[in-house]
Design brief:
Helix content of chain A: 25-40%
CATH superfamily of the largest domain in chain A: Alkaline Phosphatase, subunit A
Number of strands of chain A: 21
CATH topology of the largest domain in chain A: Alkaline Phosphatase, subunit A
Structural class of chain A: alpha/beta
Oligomer: homodimer
CATH class of the largest domain in chain A: Alpha Beta
Strand order of the largest sheet of chain A: 9-10-8-5-15-1-16-20-2-21
Shape of chain A: globular
Number of domains of chain A: 2
Largest sheet of chain A: 10 strands, mixed
Number of helices of chain A: 15
Radius of gyration of chain A: 22 Å
Strand content of chain A: 15-25%
């Protein structure tokens, strides 16, 4: 059955696309000079909703300050959509990074955990990277996660399950004896594309930068050479340090892998703390109107020493922009992800998320500088889904009621440089990792996007707008 | 000490204001025809952050549908700022409706609980309603709350404590024997302005519509006549039903009071349900990896019968627009609040909040229709602060781990018309009322606002933009 819901999605998508095509400055600029080199820089803050942005703003520049992204001329809303894993399936109201990255990369909705494949029949969906590359554009992906992680993977590979990042996990992934899935039918030996790292190693990407060496260090399926050697055989130069990154030549395509898995984050709480449970007194456990509660002590954020040993996201982005723009008269598509806004939120570590929003703003600075020198540069900055963290009152709105009022979840109280205490709540579950949440998310753009990006879009329109801007519409 | 933070606020405010004055269509239109009647319609969804908007969108029009507000051409972000109750005080990261309404009504930051008064020395701050009224504009406030409640009150009255809504509460407010405050020094007998209802009764407002009859039914301070009689003596006609509202003449100012306190909401859950605690099995209480959990049964939203007995927010708005535009060559300022998005969220009642977002969209429809016939109409639609509700996965992201994964807070699972289950979490505290949260909030505008409203503003700029649009700058 073709459901009413699916028809709605198509209609909405067309609507936005029409709006983008018909509107103001950007569109006319596009029509006037289609021959010029042009580029799209898509910056994704994983899990970066307005709670995360406000947490970071409060800490980094003060409650009344402005992040660089706040100064962009265009703010829109991206409608995050997910569907069940069957054709004609119902909507699912909370996404994961695999299906949202798929939507941004392909314009097609899919189910949680999928990497650029369709629901139900598991067909590969062409990505903006593949389309742009085939048309002669250079392409790149940069992430603070493993480059095989869901967000970067969905721009250049295809898989039914995001966990199949390397040849070994294709056979099955277990965690504490719990079986989480496999991708047996997608192995090369079964006529499939092979694992995500193998697909990246033989992809058309010009630049791949991030973490995830462990997924490239193991042997290719049915062979003895490492996946990284497969990449070299396809013309990639490998760099593994900041120095190597910055001295890399532009005569070969660039694969940079700077950590075994996710790259170290910039900030952490002292003593490695995360949000903690408030501790009610014994009397309060007897009756909720009695006794008192001890909230977690306020924490300071501090630099994470491990961060100094890897390139920053900005350094990776600068290298990518240098590589992609060198001797390039056509242009490029570059996706840059600040991944650990999300990963640190899952772990209830707000200092970590704050530092990764800071990294994202530094990437924006690089992108704006590049755009200042290369005017046909569309910058889109967005999140993929909302997340668990909430700013809650450090002093309850009900403090006068003289009874303990506190979250049933976990709480971090952060000393901010402006001398106040920022309280952040995580309470979507009691599992070791918090859940995502379902709100629509921010989308920002530079002046080039004004007239191209309406005030409200479906997340799939990020693909459509990018494709249109690069003159790649079919 | 004048803190660095306060200086930042002023600088930021000026920045936005300059941006608004210098920019595009709206500004030039303003300069070209200052003599025309013009109006500002400020629509406030109390507590209406992107989680609330997405909850309502999912339920009312489906996950891929569009609310009317989604079709507005301009989306901006409003930076919510609160300060401690002392001059030079530090920022407070979560607001209440009193201080945020004060900021929107006056352009000045204040502390939680304050109604258009300054921190520390408790001085009244001129409001946009007072400034516009003094300049010959008509003015109105409409709310589904008591008209004496924080948001409407802050546009036309002044008080140190929002609870002092009537002559009796001026003497002190207690709740279950807990003393919450008084306003003794602000009584008329002490040279003060008197309670909020008394101030409204003698205000310059042309239209006051909403709930709150109980605050007008009691005797004025030191007298025996009811506050509502004071209002009549100041030239207000009183209406108390939809029929009376719709047949009210325009020869007298209009006071409509349609319920004792907050007006009934449109939607409720069957059996009056709210979000409920998941119920872990005994085995799960022994160890978190064992046993199972029973989530609250999915609920249906249904019409609240009491709602049919009062005018809708749209009906009140239509009456207000009729009153304010009649024989008016100058223009008007109208504030319309959908109050119970917030009040129902405090009570963990998502069906209730959804219906009030629907009411707000109907108000927008009226405002857009009015603007279509009266082109110099600036519509600003925003929230005052973020709130507790979060859309969480109905099926956990960690469902494969085969252990119970569920929120430590309270959960509502709503059957949506498109056939899925929308899970909404409330977990900021275990008190009978949830907390607000601290994210920045959405701000939307019609075409008139394009060029006047930047992509990111301080909440105080809502005052500045309104004042500029009405040619009221000093």
């Amino acid at each position: 059955m073709m459901s009413r819901w699916i028809r709605c999605v198509i209609a909405v998508s067309c609507f936005s696309f029409t709006a983008a095509s018909n509107a103001g400055n950007g569109a006319s600029e596009l029509a006037a000079s289609p021959e010029l080199p042009r580029q799209v820089i898509l910056i994704i803050g994983d899990g970066m909703d307005d709670q995360q942005l406000t947490i970071a703003r409060n800490y980094l520049v003060g409650a009344s300050g402005r992040l660089l992204l706040d100064t962009l001329p265009l703010r829109s809303t991206s409608q995050v959509l997910t569907i069940e894993n069957e054709i004609g399936g119902k909507p699912v109201y909370v996404a994961d990074s695999a299906n949202t990255a798929t939507t941004m990369a392909t314009g097609v909705l899919t189910s949680r955990g999928r990497i650029a494949t369709t629901v139900g029949d598991n067909q590969p969906i062409p990505t903006i990277v593949e389309i742009a590359s085939a048309a002669g554009y250079k392409t790149g992906i940069v992430s603070t996660a493993s480059v095989t992680d869901a967000t970067p993977a969905a721009f250049a590979t295809h898989m039914s399950l995001r966990l199949c990042e390397n040849p070994e996990t294709m056979l099955g992934v277990t965690y504490k004896d719990i079986f989480l899935g496999n991708c047996l039918g997608e192995r090369k030996s079964q006529g499939g594309p092979g694992s995500i790292s193998e697909q990246l190693a033989s992809s058309a990407l010009d630049v791949i930068l991030g973490g995830g060496m462990k997924h490239f260090a193991m042997p290719i399926e049915g062979g003895t050479t490492a996946v990284v050697e497969l990449a070299k055989s396809h013309g990639y130069q490998l760099v593994t340090s900041t120095a190597e990154l910055q001295s890399a030549g532009t005569d070969q395509r660039l694969l940079g892998l700077f950590s075994p898995g996710t790259m170290p984050v910039r900030l952490r709480a002292q003593n490695g703390r995360s949000a903690e449970e408030p501790k009610p007194s014994l009397l309060h456990q007897v009756h909720r109107y009695l006794g008192e509660v001890t909230l977690p002590a306020a924490m300071n954020c501090e630099p994470n020493p491990a961060f100094a040993k890897v390139p920053s996201l900005k350094e990776m982005t600068d290298a990518a922009l240098h590589q992609l723009s060198q001797d390039n008269t056509r242009g490029f598509f570059l996706m840059v992800e600040s991944a650990s806004i999300d990963k640190q939120a899952h772990k209830r570590k707000p200092c970590g998320s704050i530092g990764e929003v800071e990294q994202l703003n530094e990437v924006l600075d690089s992108a704006l500088t590049f755009a200042a020198n290369n005017p046909h540069t569309l910058i889109l900055l967005t999140a993929d889904h909302a997340h668990a963290a909430q700013i809650v009152p450090n002093e309850s709105l009900y403090a006068k009621y003289t009874i303990p009022v506190y979250t049933p979840g976990k709480l971090a109280r952060i000393n901010t440089p402006e001398g106040a205490v920022l309280a952040v709540n995580y309470a979507t579950n009691s599992f070791p990792y918090e859940e995502h949440t379902g709100a629509s998310v921010p989308l920002f753009s530079n002046q080039v996007g004004v007239g191209l990006v309406p005030a409200f879009i479906a997340q799939a329109d990020i693909f459509h707008i990018s494709r249109t801007y690069l003159n790649l519409d079919p």
